[in-house]
Amino acid sequence: MQLNPITHSNPTQKNYRKRTIAALSLGAVSYLLGNVDTANASTAGLQAVELGWDAVPEAGVVGYKIHVGTTSNQYTTVIDAGSVTSLVLPGLAAGSTFYVVVTAVANTGLESDFSSEVSFQTAPLLPPGGLHSLNLAWNPVSDSAVAGYRVQVGNSSRNYTSSYNVGSLTTFPVANLEFGKTYYFVVSAIGTTGLESELSSELAVKIAPPPLPGGVAMGSTSSDSSVPGVPCVKWKFPASDLGSSPEFLVSMSSDLIHWVDAGPISPNQSTVNTAGEVEFSWPIQVTSGKMFYRMTARNWMGTPVLP
Questions:
Q1: Domain that holds residue 181
Q2: What's the pTM?
Q3: Which of 198, 200, 277, 294 is the most exposed place for a label (fewest CB within 10 A)?
């Protein structure tokens, strides 16, 4: 009889064969779309991390358990993950180190050995006010010669004044970013011989909420006034503020009390791009005799006051 490596081999025996999970992957997330807004103490103090692991292929495996602790090999919290192979751990204290292992659970109730341990550190809690932390993430380089990665940061394009060797991590919280400034980020891979790869594409982020869209008006999707078109909301946005990573929301109401959002609308959905402005034309559906519309912009730093 073929024995399942994780199930009870014989009800009368106490020696069980268990399978250790092959690998445990780690990706960082937070409640604020991958970023930590330290101006808001109610959310900045708690962070979240997404864990992923390889599935155990045996038919007898019915689920997994996550074991978490703040000391290596000492796990004080156990979370039943069910049958999924990824899970977000919420409510993690800022500036703390956590240690995690995963076990597989068989349909007999038996539990596998621990996976290899993974440790990670949450971003520090920065002073409230004008400083913020942004959690960068990038795709790993699938090359066995890659030993780690280096993150570079600067206040002007292609001019990087800060450098961080982050080891084999593929996510890194860059702290002490000043409110209102634009930062430029690149990542490079470091080989086992010490050689460094070319720089990744540059990411520019403005550490501030986006401004409100300008020139908001009703219009038609047809440029010819003699040809009927689809009703739409049109607006403009400064091209210089696209670095704030904005997204837009068109809200509509029939009574100015109950509002329904049609969005979010990203900058790449613009209809016209000029040197100074990006223009949008968003089709709408008129569902009653009189409709009201409003427009706002938001990003991970917040939402401006509605016009």
A1: 131-206
A2: 0.52
A3: 198
